[in-house]
Specification:
By secondary structure, this protein is an all-alpha fold. The chain has 5 helices and no strands. 62% of the residues lie in helices and 0% in strands.
């Protein structure tokens, strides 16, 4: 049976949230382009999954994608593509932006926050 690429057999989306597809796509692009080796990706993702499960987290889709995000961040830190401080700053900027955005309105950062 041929399935729509973003559908499970029960017609539910493969990803529960758009960010899950985005983070997995970013990792795939970086591995495919040779920026991150497949071995490094597998090793780092496996380590993050192991930490998650060892901490008592449930083995579910949310925890899997949290591990995917953590693994991608670790590898990007190692490459020097970004730093923990830069990620923390950007997360704080987005947090403030969505907390100050009226319900139903799109969330955006001020141009000064992007540079």
């Amino acid at each position: 049976m041929v399935l729509d690429p973003l559908k499970r057999r029960d017609d539910e989306p493969t990803f529960d949230e758009p960010w899950q597809a985005q983070v997995l796509s970013m990792a795939d692009i970086l591995v495919t382009a040779g920026v991150i080796s497949a071995d490094a990706w597998a090793r780092t993702l496996g380590a993050e999954r192991g930490k998650s499960l060892a901490s008592g987290a449930e083995d579910n889709v949310d925890e899997y994608y949290r591990a995917v995000l953590a693994a991608l961040q670790i590898l990007l830190y190692e490459l020097g593509a970004t730093s923990r401080e830069e990620v923390d700053i950007r997360q704080d900027e987005w947090r403030r932006a969505y907390l100050n955005t009226p319900h139903g309105q799109p969330v955006s950062l001020e141009p000064s926050a992007l540079g």
